[in-house]
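Q: Here's a chain of 422 amino acids. Please give me its 3D structure as tokens.
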Amino acid sequence: MRAPPLALAWSVWGLGALLYLIGFYQRVAPAVITDQLMAEFSIGGAALGNLSAFYFYSYVAMQIPTGIIADRWGPRRLLAAGAAVAALGTALFATAADIAWASAGRLLIGASVAVAFVSMLKLASHWFAPRQYALASGMALLMGVVGGVIAGLPLRLLVEAFGWRTVMGVSAVATAALAVAIWLWVRDDPVQRGYGSHAHGGGHGEHMPILQGLAQVLSYRNLWLLTLVPIGYSGAVLTFAGLWGVPWLRQVHGLDPKSAAAITSTLLVSWAVGGPLLGAWSERMGRRKPLYVIAAAVALLGWAAIIFLPLPLWAIVVLLVPTGFASGNLIIGFAWAKESVPLRVIGTASGVCNMGPLLGGMLLQPGMGWMLDRHWNGAMAGGARLYDAAAYQAGFALIFGVVCLSMVLILFARESHCRQMQ
């Protein structure tokens, strides 16, 4: 049978990618509505950080089960169910009467959109030729960043025009429509539409029991290190761009919400560009560790300057670009982690390693909020707490400390020389 037309393949894959876009949009959306959420639910920084982090709690918990479910259900059913539950969670968040219901909504959103990335890769392996698989993987990251950018300035403009509840309600409707479209259009394999499949025949050998495979993966030191290191680097990006960067730019640097949202989007875009390029450069070098360490040092210096030096605003914006770019070193880490374990447990290793970046957001968003509340001087405006420069520096110093720890940990990882462990 002939291969599926590219237009059809991209449309099938693209519907799955739209759920990933929505997931990234939901991940960073709280950043531009911090003042409304604090006033609406009468909460401080720690509670706001925890509300935002409920997304990460369930997202992280779903990483390992998602791969197992995808093998049993197939990406079509998993994506459709994920979009439907995400719509429900978004509607719950939009109509929440108190912080408990809002948190429940965020929890549902995180758990449901966690299925998108693995499902996209599974679709790509069936619908695209091997030479196009890398392009699809890179496009996946691009789709995520588009979602993050939409959650910046465009979302702020919509919130100012219609209110955050209305905008989230419309988001719920759009996500529900996506669930229907996925069910009607997406198929797990081109064979189901009368075309030849690009997937290779099943796995080789026996599948290791889940708990045994997990135990074996966790026995490799590199896997532990390459899961823990992104907690600092990715966590810093997700905490700054995903929650606390906008209020810091507004309250300390006097920016309007739209300008602040645009600046934090710069960090996200740089992060997305840096990941694929750093990954490709490490492949050309034939080594993982040198470039990872160099990028880690650049990001560390960038955050040190942004947090501790009395820089003008233009200098902060300029520094966010290399800092975000260098923080994309996690893409090197994904490849490095896969090469650090035997072939038979790569799937489990990928699920474990993917938890690291999300753990950063899960821990550091509420952690910084807790630090802000500890240094709050009592100022409020419109029912929302206002924090001064000293409070924000204390909060960002906590993040910097975790980044420093990540820098130390990566030095202990063993080089793989871009070769798969057998």
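Q: Can you summarize the key feature?
A: The radius of gyration is 21 Å.
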